[in-house]
Amino acid sequence: MVREGIYRVKAGSKEIEITEEVLETLQRYVHTEMTLEELAAKLDLEGWEEAYDFLKNLPAWILWIHPTLWKTMRTMEAVREEVTRPGRK
């Protein structure tokens, strides 16, 4: 889900905001032998089932975005919102 430049992904009854820290954790999960239980603990989820649900709902392209690029994309989104805000001269 996208709202005002903020990406959130449902995991069970929770919504997790995709931040640089979450992306770093996801990159560690993808590139190492981190288990779903470990991923759940790092993302403050109830268990591996919620971590699995989170990964199912996560768009695949997000897994391959570097955290620095993510920060740049969010900054650009904020600037675009500032420039296109109604009533701005």
Describe the structure.
- The protein has 4 helices and 3 strands; from the N terminus they run βββαααα.
- The protein is of the alpha+beta class and 89 residues long.
- The chain has one domain.
- Strands 1-2-3 form a 3-stranded antiparallel β-sheet.
- α1 runs antiparallel to α4 and α2 packs across α3.
- The N and C termini lie far apart (31 Å).
- The mean pLDDT is 84.
List the helices and strands and how they pair.
Layout: E1 2-3, E2 6-11, E3 14-17, H1 20-31, H2 36-42, H3 48-57, H4 67-83
Antiparallel strand pairs: 1-2, 2-3
> In order across it, which strands form the biggest sheet?
1-2-3
Secondary-structure-derived class: alpha+beta
Q: Portion of residues in helices?
A: 40-55%
Which geometry do the CA atoms define?
A: globular
Radius of gyration: 15 Å
Write down how many β-strands occur, each being a DSSP E stretch of 2 or more residues.
3
Q: How much strand content do the residues show?
A: 5-15%
